[in-house]
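note to self: dont lose this again. the chain is below, predicted strucutre after it. 632 aa total, dont forget to put it in the shared folder this time
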Amino acid sequence: MRLIRIATANINTTVGATRDNVDRAIAACELAAKDDATVIVLPEQAIGGYAPEDLVQWRAFVEAQWVGLERLAKATEASRCVVAVGVTVAIDARLYNAAALLFAGKIVGLVPKEKLPTYNVFYEERTFAHGAPGMREHVRGVPFGDLVFAFDFGAVALEVCEDFWSPDGPMRRRCYAGAELVLNVSASPFRIGVASTRREMIATRAADNQCTLAYANLVGANDGLVFDGGGFVAQNGRVALEATRFREGVSAVTVDLDRTLRLRTENTTWRTDRDTFAAADHGPEVVRVQGVTRSRDKLTYPFPQNKSFFLPAEPPTSSARAAFCEEILDALTLGVGDYFEKTGAFKTIGVALSGGRDSLFCLWIARRYVDKRFADLDKAGRDGKARELLRAFFMPSRFSSKRTAAAADEAAKELCVPFAVVSIDDGFDREIIEANKMLQAGESLTPTAKQNIQARLRSARMWTWANNAGGLFLQTSNMSEKSVGYCTIGGDMEGALSVIANLPKTVVNYILDYLLETTGSPAIRMTLEMPASAELAADQEDEKDLMPFPVLDACFALYAGEKMSVAEVKEVLRVMFPEHAGKTDPWADKFGRLFVQSIYKWVQTPITLHVGNLDLDRERALQLPVVQKVQW
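---
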């Protein structure tokens, strides 16, 4: 047996907080060492924080990362652990997103990322240079490039995040060069369903390359990106460790590297492919690292927990519905909490409650943050923290119903949030008078303008409260309404952080149904019993103004996600929604018109939490020109 213990360390970094980030890394390494870890894997860009974007163009920021890297190496010297960590490295005019390998107080090697994503939420190629096969350089005397590291327990390779997402990544040639253990430092943002994709990918890569693969992901949120953490160790296709997501912590597993060697020996196809590769390519450079790594005398063979090599483990108890809802709730909670804490600009969190679904959902997320943040307190203590940190406001007009007022009041009581009712009716009347003074002869205020006056009055009051209280004003509009401009510039589009602006309305409704089932919340029940309405006009209902939300969300997914034409969208809708025969064609036309005409609106929204592969955010996922024609 050749036993080693591999630890994945999830730390919550902040971009630019090089000292704090290194402190967190040191603390995680100390925990891993106490658990007899041989190898520790930290996340991508763990020293400087991710995503640094153009901040890496400040050389002082890059230099500070090297200072932090040296401090981390010294701090882990006594443990004799091998540590992999992500860092920015400068060589002349080039900047690299790299993985560093630390051992015995030294930086023993640096390996640059080769696959630089420039899609969806990523812009790495804007600032970083590519690593390349066969690269051989030195940085301050440290080997840099396409490397494999030989230790007393076996051969180790490094790679950075995206490198393992490509089947043509550097892992193959490094494994052919002898690497048995591949360490992937990663900062992979949360997307709905991404955990199962990662698990399958990691198992596949470990099987394809007949290696042991360890992956550690960043946890925490920076701007609108939410990183769900977690980690995996997979040995030759079999997952040996799956770390808990959405929390800082260290997870570890013992593996027998002789098993990897044995399976390579048995796999004639792998050996033939390796020989073919070796004949055509010299492969990476092997760096022989001198010194004895951490003692492995206490390690024991990793037999299954159920003590059977043939029977399956107990199946997971969580349903697919619960897993779907809970991971979205966790992602949004982490996004709101980290934005609130890391910016250093806020003392409280405020929500303008309408008595409707979106604002209730956002307040629920804010309260969930309090419960997670102060989980060590009992319920009374957490209720006290909610009263201290959260605020809710109901600003009714003449169009607000008694039912929504009651639902808003119940939500605030249920979640223990201080609640104020401040009517906007007097301000509404005054603003109509003043607005009429701006009109020309024969002109009059349109119904839409009158609706928007109400939304803007509420927003102005929320900003005044936020300025006075140091409040984080949460914007509560959803992605469905945002996509067709069913929102008001200067009104409900306002806020410091958009919580659900990348969450379709059908998903909001689905999660609220789930929360009602699991909590029995009277506030949620009261809210769901009413049709969704902006309540800016008499008898207004959102789906009557627009179309049924399942149809609207289908239009958005097909047009913006699948990049279909409106004509193609119509074809799909006719089959998808036969119960709306004769209506889906006009709805598709309406969606196409409103979507293009509303781009100028949604590009002005605040920073938005990203939870899916299809986001409505010009700076991140869907980059569309504001000025365009659809003659095509």
